[in-house]
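User: Please fill in residues for this 59-position structure.
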């Protein structure tokens, strides 16, 4: 039972940590516009193995 609670706590901590990292990156981009806008990766990555990815060159 303790292992299950510990595993849940670790997973939640990792998720909260990731949200904090994203917020820090957005704040950094807002305070340093010379580096360009914050570009968040969305979807399946946008590569050619993805269905309809933008990086694919259609012939």
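Assistant: Residues filled in for all 59 positions:
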């Amino acid at each position: 039972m303790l292992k299950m609670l510990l595993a849940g706590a670790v997973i939640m901590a990792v998720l909260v940590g990731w949200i904090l990292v994203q917020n820090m990156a957005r704040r950094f981009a807002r305070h340093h516009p010379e580096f360009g806008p914050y570009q968040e990766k969305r979807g399946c990555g946008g590569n050619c193995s993805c269905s309809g990815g933008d990086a694919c060159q259609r012939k």
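For context: The CA atoms of residues 14 and 20 lie 10 Å apart.
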